[in-house]
Amino acid sequence: MRKLFIILLSVSTCLTAFSQEKGSFEFGFNVGYNLSTVTSGSTTNSTFRSAFNAGGFGDYYFSNRWSIKAKLTYDQKGWNDGFITNLNNGQSFKTDYRIDYLTIPVMANWHFGKKRNWYLNFGPYAGFLLNAKETMFNTDLKEIMNSTDFGLAAGIGVKIPVAKKLKILLELDGQSGFTDVLKNNQGSTINNSRSSFNTGLVFDL
To answer: Record's InterPro entries (predicted)?
Structure first.
């Protein structure tokens, strides 16, 4: 009977330790592998760019099920197998586009599972252009790109406890842009699309 009581007490303690309560705050850092491309109303024939992201985040809990999470991320986007046209002779060349942003998503975070260590999140993001170029001629393209990118972010992840106030983060997330990548685009709208797999560390305050 005494052993059973000790086991139940231990399980209860673990559940309490792993789930967060109202007013709790977590922060952390993560890095991730990006697959980015663009979508358009017309055929682009573009392929995915393999890249990465890195950043930090904070997560404030309103209850053990809901929190609001904000990120600050260096986000490599763009696409491969695009085209660039020489304005002097009209000749087109295949090239890859490298477009990097400082991205700030603000998302509602729903926590689920017995220990509330799984989560789904969704919300808007704003991206601020850092640099843009193509690889065929190494041309700087910042002047023809929109300086901001607004869209929707969503993801699913799990936090694995490794110590009392430390967890390992594993996450899949995606972003879909609503803003045209090009500043004065006369053709079909071109929007960013990015998926990533992230891993990182989460600290409890």
So the answer is: Beta-barrel_OMP_2 (IPR025665), OMP/PagP_B-barrel (IPR011250)
